[in-house]
Amino acid sequence: VHDLCRQAIEVALDAGASYADARAIVRQSQLVMTKNGEVETVSDTETAGIGVRVLVGGAWGFACDRRLEDAGANDAARRAAAFARAAPGSHTRELAPLEPQRGSYRTEFERDPIEVPLADKIALCLRADEALAHDDVKVRIASVRALREEKVFLSSEGSVVEQLLVDCGGGIDAIALGDGLHQMRSYPSAHTGSSAQAGWEYVERLALEREAPRVAEEAAALLRADECPSGRTTVVIDSEQTALQVHESVGHPTELDRVYGTEASYAGTSFLSPGDLGSLRYGSPHMNITADATTPGGMGTFGYDDEGVPAARVPVVEEGVLRGFLTSRETAARIGSGAGGSMRADGWNRMPLVRMTNLHLEPGEGTLEDLLADVDDGIYLATNKSWSIDDKRLNFQFGTQVAWEIKKGKLGRLLRDATYTGITPEFWGSLDAAAGPDTWTLYGLTNCGKGQPGQIAAVSHGAPAARFRNVQVGVRA
Amino acid sequence: VSVTATRALDLAGEVLEACRGEDAQVVVHRERSGLARFAGSEVHQPTLIENTVVQLRVARDGRVGGASTNRVSKDAFEALARRATDAADSSPADPHFQGFAPPAAVPEVDGYDGRTAELAAEEQAAHAAAAIEATGSFDAYGFFTSGLTELAVASTTGQAAEQSMTDVVAVVLAAGDDASGWAEQTAWAVGDVDTATVAREAAEKAAATHGAVELEPAAYPAVLEPYAFAELLGSFGSRAFGGLGLLEGSSYFCDRLGERVFDPKVSIVDDSLVPRGLPKAFDFEGVPKQRVQLVEEGVARGVVWDRRTAARAGVGTASTGHGLPSEFARFGPMPLAPFVAPGDADSVDELAERIGDGIYVTRLHYLNTVNPREGIVTGMTRDGTFRIRGGKRAEPLVNLRFTVSVPEFLADVPGLTTERKLVNLTAFYGDRYVFGAVVPAVASARFNVTGIGSRPGL
Lengths: 477, 458
Hints:
Chain A contains ten helices and 24 strands. Chain A has helices at residues 2-14, 70-86, 118-131, 200-206, 208-222, 239-251, 256-259, 329-335, 368-373, 424-429; strands at residues 19-35, 38-56, 59-65, 102-106, 137-155, 160-178, 181-187, 194-196, 226-227, 231-237, 289-292, 313-318, 321-322, 343-344, 353-354, 359-361, 377-389, 395-407, 410-416, 418-423, 431-434, 441-450, 455-463, 466-473. In chain A, strands 1, 2, 3, 4, 5, 6, 7 and 8 form an eight-stranded mixed beta sheet that branches. Chain B is of the alpha+beta class and 458 residues long. Chain B has helices at 8-18, 74-90, 114-117, 121-134, 195-207, 226-240, 243-247, 307-313, 348-355, 406-409; strands spanning 23-39, 42-60, 63-69, 139-155, 160-175, 180-187, 219-224, 268-270, 292-296, 299-300, 338-340, 358-371, 376-389, 392-396, 400-405, 415-424, 436-452. In chain B, a hairpin with a 2-residue loop joins β1 and β2. Chain B is globular and about 70 Å long. The two termini of chain B are 41 Å apart. At the A-B interface, β1, β2, β3, α2 and α3 of A face β1, β2, β3, α2 and α4 of B. β3 of chain A pairs parallel with β2 of chain B, so a sheet runs across the interface.
C-alpha cells in the first residue's frame, strides 16, 4: 500500500502537481441494533480505496478509486490533477510548513471490537433490550457498533504515516407512548449512544443492561410529567447536553475554514473573524475550552491528521477569551499561526476538511449538588433531544429529553419537552459555574456532518455539568 | 455508458452465485460522479468519485444477516457471502421477515441522460466557472455536480431489476459581508440546468438583502419559496409520511389517517415514476415503486412502506417500494419523491398579495424535530428573508429562528403557486442516490418566529 501511495504521488507530480498526498484506507465497520426483542440490523461493512489530493497551479484537486492496485492509484492521481487544472478562479495557496513526518499510531485496546462475534453483540443488545421492558415503554432499542480503520498517508513532502484506529460504542433508548405523548430516554447519551476509541471493554463498561430499568422508568415517568414552563431562568445542564453545546456553539464556529467562508453554501460560516484571536470575549472566565487530539479514548484522537500533522492539545478558549482556531495547513498559513492539525476525511473517497478533534469544556470545581445549591428557582436539563443553530453559530435552540425543576437548591418536579435557546457569546457569558472533574464525562459522537459531498466525522467532547443564568427556556410552537 | 464494462446486474448475478444456494438478495450500487465545490469564487473542494458497493443479505430459516464490500472479485464475493451468512447465523429468526421480494416487473421510467452520464471533470469545472462568472459583484459559494448511479437488485427469488440514473445539481449562494441570496436547479439531464441562471437568481436575491433589520418574534403569515417549503416538508415527512412512524407512534398521522389534517388546498403524493422529478423504478429491496397518496385535499390518506414495516403492520399492508439501503433500513421507509399539488397563484408575488402583511422566506437552515408526534420543527431562515408589507416584498430581515407545528403551518393556506420546482434534498453523504421534492411556493397564515439570529452574508 505504501508503494501504491508513492506511485500515485509520482503520477500526480508528473501530471503537473506541485504538491500531492495519497491516503489508502481499509475500513471495516459493524452495527447491531435490536428493537422490541427482535434484531433490527446486523451489518458488516468493508470499504477500501485510495484518495489522491493534489495542488496544480495553486488549485486543489481530489479524486479517488476503490481499486487498491496500480490502475486505481494512477487513475485517481491523473483525474485529481486534471480536475485541479480545470478549476476556475485565481488560486494562490500556501501550506503551513511541516517537517516530513514518519511514524505510526495505533489505538490502545484490550479486545478488538471487530473480532467480538456478531452473536455476542446481538446477545448483549437483546439482554439490554429485555431489561428496558416496562408497560409504558412501547419501543425498546439497543445498539452496538464497532470500527477498525487502517490508514496509510504519504505526501510529496516526504511524510509517511501509518495508523490503526479502532473504536466502538453502544446505547439504549426507551420510547414511552401514551395520551398522544411520545417521550424518550437514552443512555449513555442520545443518538445511538456513545463511542470511544477503545476496545470492546468500553462497551462492556457501559453496562447497558444494568442501566436499562432506570432509563425505562424515566421514559415512562415523562408521560405523567408537566410540560417545562416558559420564561427566563437559571439552568443547570448535565455534561452530555453541555458537550453538545460545546460542539455546536464552540467547535463549529472555531473551524477556520468556516471563518474563511468555505462552508458557506452548506454548514455555514462563523460569527468569529481571524482578528478575534486573543481578544474576543467568548464567554465568562469560567469558560475554558481545549482541542485535544491526544485524549485517550477520544473519537477525534489520532497520531497524525489527514495531512500528516502530528496530534496536539491546544487551547481554544481560556478564561472566556478566544485563543485558538481549528485549522488545516492551508488555513493555518492564512492566519499565520500554527501548523494545522485538524484535517480529517470521512474515508478514502472524501477530501479532508477541518474537523473538530476532541473539544472539551474543562472542569471547574465542586459537585452537581454544589451547582444546584446556588439555584433558588431554575431548571436542570439532561440528555439531548433536538438541536439547531444558525449558519454563523449564533442563535441556537436545543431540546432535552428530560428536565427537573430546581427549587431552593434541590431537584423537584420532573418536566417534559424542555427546550432552551440563546445567542452563543451571551449564553457562554452567562456561565457562572462549571462543576468539577467528578462530573466531567467524555462522550463520543458519530454523526457530525459537514462538506459537499457530505462527510460524517466522529468526535468526542468532555464536559462537566454547568450552570448558566438568565436563559430562555420553554420555546413554544 | 456504464461505470465499468460489467453491467451492475451481471455483477449481482456473480454475487448470488458465490452464495452457493443460500436465500439471498444482492444490491449493486455504483457511482461515478464529480462535484466542483466553490467558495469565494474559486473551486476549492473538487471531488471525483468512482465506487462500486455490493450489499448482500442472506436468509437462513428466517434469520437474516447482511454484509457489504466494495471489493469486486470472485474471492471478494465469496468472502462477502461468508460474512453475510455468519451474520444470519448469529441472528435469531426475524418474525417479520417474509422472504426477499418476489419477481415483479418494474416500471419503465426516465431519469437517465447519456450526455449527463458522460460529463467529464473539465465540463463539471466549466459549469462551476459559469456560475462564478454570472454571480457578478458577489462572491459565489456552492457547487456543480453531476453523476451516474447504477442500481441493480437481484435475489434468489428470481427478482432482477436494474436502473441507470443521472443527476445534476447546481447550487449558488451569492454572498458579501452583509448580503446573501440562494438559488438551485436540479434535474436528471444537464440540458435542463443552467448554472448561469442559478447564479443570477442568487445574486439578485442577495442584492435585496443589504441592511437587514430585526423582527419581533411572533406568529406571522408567511410566503415560503419552494426551497424553504421542500425542506420543511422533507423534515416533517421523514417521520410523518413513513410506515415506521405510524407503527411506533412518532408520526403526526398516528390515529389521524382519514382525517382532515391540512388545508384542503394541500395534496401530496409520493411519486418516483414521473419524469418531472428524479425517477426511480424500484427500491433497495427490488420492489417496484408505487405512487402513494399521502394527503388528498387536506385529508391524511396514507404513508409509505417497505417489506418489513408492512409485515409488522399486518394483513392488508404491502410494501409500496420505499425500502432504503440495508444500512439505513432501521430508519424505516421514506418518501423520497414528494410532489405537492400546485395551487392557483400565478407567482410568489401573488402569494404575497394574498397575505398582505407577513414575512417572505427563501430557504431554511438546520432543521430539527422538536416533537415528532405533533410535527413541531425548529430551524432558521437564511439567504433571503424579507418583510411583506401591503402585499409586496419589503425590507430584508435578519435570519429568523422559527419553531412551527407543520400541521398548523399547513392548516390555513391562502394559496400555492401554479409553478412548481424540483428541489434537491440530498446532501451527498455516503453512496450517491439523489432525490428531491417537487413543490410550489406556499403561503401560510401562521409561521411562528421564536427568535432572531445572524444577518445575511458571510
